[in-house]
């Protein structure tokens, strides 16, 4: 079984913000699969589906970003899921808007949602699916940046990025993390401007 979690903040006012890219990807994945009705469980909205004959739990923590682990840790333990099968989707300021990066593990890199997951899962060994949101504008704080919506110019780019990441997550469930990184990570030599 896989636990596929998208990080974000609950509530209408946060729906379209950069910090909610994880939720956007989960919604996109759910829209392409037949799944059980969404339900509340362990401080998260969850539904269940099947991908490549494997059961998949789609998860949107309702704890607010900085406490995401309070939902994911209990779900992982309740369903007896290995951390290597917890696929975490979230926003990354170090990547250009809409760019994707998959890694098998790593540090929090300053991301409070990931810090919370590491704390509550008790390990850094869980796969990361990062979607670029770009850097803050001059004189903007990180908080201003992540809690602001995408600009009109960025809308199409991020929509494509979310669609591509949904495909990458589903593809990686089928082929495994190593092949998934190979298939979906940007190829070396291609310069990102």
TrEMBL record:
Q: Which residues bind tRNA?
A: 14, 64, 66, 112
Any single GO BP term? protein quality control for misfolded or incompletely synthesized proteins
Q: Which residues form a coiled coil?
A: none
Enzyme Commission identifier(s): 3.1.1.29
**Keyword terms of this UniProt record:** Cytoplasm, Hydrolase, RNA-binding, tRNA-binding
Xref: CDD domains: PTH
Query: Could you confirm whether the keyword Cell inner membrane appears in this record?
Result: no
The entry's localization annotation reads: Cytoplasm
Keyword Hydrolase assigned to the entry: answer is: yes
Look up the domain of life of the source: Bacteria
Complex formation: Monomer.
**Family per similarity comment:** Belongs to the PTH family.
Instruction: Please report the name of this protein according to its UniProt entry.
Output: Peptidyl-tRNA hydrolase
- The organism is Veillonella montpellierensis DNF00314
């Amino acid at each position: 079984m896989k636990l596929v979690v998208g990080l974000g903040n609950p509530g209408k006012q946060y729906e379209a913000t950069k910090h909610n890219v994880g939720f956007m990807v989960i919604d996109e994945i759910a829209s392409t699969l037949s799944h059980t009705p969404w339900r509340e469980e362990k401080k998260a909205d969850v539904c269940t589906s099947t991908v490549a004959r494997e059961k998949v739990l789609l998860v949107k923590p309702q704890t607010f970003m900085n406490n995401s682990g309070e939902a994911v840790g209990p779900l992982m333990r309740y369903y007896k899921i290995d951390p290597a099968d917890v696929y975490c989707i979230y926003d990354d300021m170090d990547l250009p808007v809409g760019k994707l990066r998959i890694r098998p593990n790593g540090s929090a890199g300053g991301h409070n949602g990931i810090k919370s997951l590491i704390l509550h899962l008790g390990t850094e060994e869980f796969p990361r699916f990062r979607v670029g949101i770009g850097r803050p504008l001059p004189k903007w704080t990180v908080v201003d940046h992540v809690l602001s919506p995408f600009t009109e110019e960025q809308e199409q780019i991020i929509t494509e990025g979310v669609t591509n990441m949904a495909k990458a997550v589903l593809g990686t469930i089928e082929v495994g993390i190593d092949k998934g990184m190979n298939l979906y990570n940007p190829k070396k030599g291609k310069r990102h401007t």
